[in-house]
Specification:
By secondary structure, the chain is α+β, with helices and mostly antiparallel strands. The protein is 48% helix and 13% strand.
Length: 201
């Protein structure tokens, strides 16, 4: 059996292409898991068969801009936990954004949104850190998509954490078209950087 360096030399001598395993760095592997998470969010169940989920892996320059913006928000709001999350984003190997795109009510007239029916819901609009209102049934779709993505990361042993603040910054920077979105930063190190974090004073 050929292993290690001998295996690589054998492949080279026989003009046999190197496997993807030999070409990918650890960071590349984490990003690949992010792409599998994007796939999981895309194929997650959706109410009445309609897909309003946005999912994508940020490019590195977008991730860095996001991390720096979270730190800037910390200074603007005198709220240090934004800085903590911003540093997590800068230290991460990748970030997956998953959000809920603009949508009409699901047509069920269930009243869970607080309005009489979907027709009334469709006439309302409000903007804060996120856009609203959002259909409760569609919000369930978002939760299922986030859970499906996080499950993939967990199964692949990639450390992750769903973060609300990432979505706020992503909207502020124009990185998303969603009414509301959350981010999932990814890391693969000897210790999970997203938990056991020291609270900022």
């Amino acid at each position: 059996m050929l292993i290690g360096e001998n295996y690589g030399l054998w492949r080279e001598r026989n003009n046999y292409p190197m496997s993807i395993h030999h070409l990918m760095t650890l960071k590349d592997t984490v990003r690949f898991v992010g792409e599998l998470m994007e796939l999981a969010a895309r194929t997650a169940p959706k109410a009445v068969g309609q897909d309003y989920i946005e999912a994508r892996v940020l490019e590195d320059y977008e991730r860095e801009a996001l991390g720096n913006d979270l730190i800037a928000i910390a200074a603007e709001r005198s709220s240090p936990n934004w800085e903590r999350d911003g540093q997590n984003v800068l230290d991460a190997s990748a970030v997956v954004l998953i959000g809920l795109l603009p949508h009409k009510g699901a047509g069920l007239n269930c009243g869970a949104c607080g309005f009489k029916d979907c027709a009334e819901f469709n006439q309302r609009s409000n903007q804060g850190e996120f856009m609203g209102p959002n259909c409760s049934i569609r919000m369930l779709d978002l939760g299922i998509a986030l859970g499906s993505a996080a499950k993939v990361a967990s199964e692949m042993n990639v450390d992750n954490r769903i973060m609300y603040r990432i979505g706020v910054s992503a909207r502020r920077l124009g990185l998303t078209s969603s009414n509301i979105c959350h981010g999932i930063p990814l890391s693969a190190t000897g210790k999970n950087i997203f938990f056991d974090r020291q609270p900022k004073k």
